Amino acid sequence: MTDSMAREIIQRKKEEYGESLIILCHHYQSDDIIAYADFIGDSLELARKASRIGRAEHVVFCGVYFMAESAAILAPGKSVYIPDRDAGCPLADMAPEGAVLKAWDALKEIADSVIPVSYVNSSAAIKAFCGRNSGTICTSGNALKVFEWAYSKADRIFFLPDMNLGRNTARGMGIPDDLIALWDPEKDLGGLDEETLMKARIILWKGWCPVHWPRFTPEDVSSVRAGCPGIRVIVHPETDPRTVAAADMSGSTANILNCVSRMSPGESLAIGTEANMVKRAASANPQLRIVPLKEVYCDDMARITMEKLADTLLHLEDDTYRVSVPGDTARHAFAALANMLKI
Ligand code: SF4
Predict the structure, then answer these.
(1) Can you give the residue range of the structural domain that contains 229?
(2) I need a labelling partner for 143 at 20 to 30 A (CA). Which of 151, 162, 267, 317 fits?
């Protein structure tokens, strides 16, 4: 299918389905896809939007699989589709359910008063695990508030799967490094001893987003500052804590865009996150100087193409692209997500 055929199909199907179709797009999607978005957002904004979809019967999610699963969980009764089922997330895949349950059982034997919290970048099975154990979900935009809530319920947090978001958030709350434990699923008891686990305030699962870690480094921050005196630097909290410390600020994609909206003409900002979003912010704000801290792209987000979007819209009446989550998993994952949306 050529690009012009794909454009014609997308436009025609959008007109045909009208308000019964909604296309949600993550900020990391390419401009070609964003052009057809009814709503653009980060994980939290898209989760909220999915939970409040009114008349739309069909929700096409241009993002990665765990996001479409979350939409299916939060919008029961709607049909949710993803244009490529193989658009996964390596970070989410680093926390398989079996390994997490094994770690949880071992942890509970040693350390009491522990609550599970998962980053939204996780499978429905992991969200359900949190829901079954009175835990919750967070995004990069609300992690601090969610951690505060979790500490009102338990002495320690079992956080998965992103070790950098966990450490950056814990440090932001003043938790010292010696009370932050890192659970390596490849090792017995996570490579930790009982004393470390008993005194830890947070146990981090050893997972990371390969787009953000270890790609953005403190040296990148020094280098951009040297090339552009006066430039400020903001990075996503999935980056290395040393990079966060070297930058002026860190924040979720929504926070980064808020930061851009507050800048005055002539100011400069280097942004450490996926480059599609950074370049779009730069072209939407020609009065500012916005540059990627480093040009990195998410290969999984890039799996969504116009051709696949067009084909999805041709198959809204069958299961080719439909995303569904088994009932029991969906119920417990919903509980965890609902907890988050209340915080
Ligand atoms: S940017 Fe990272 S966390 Fe987000 S979908 Fe890609 S690999 Fe997963």
Answers:
(1) 218-292
(2) 267
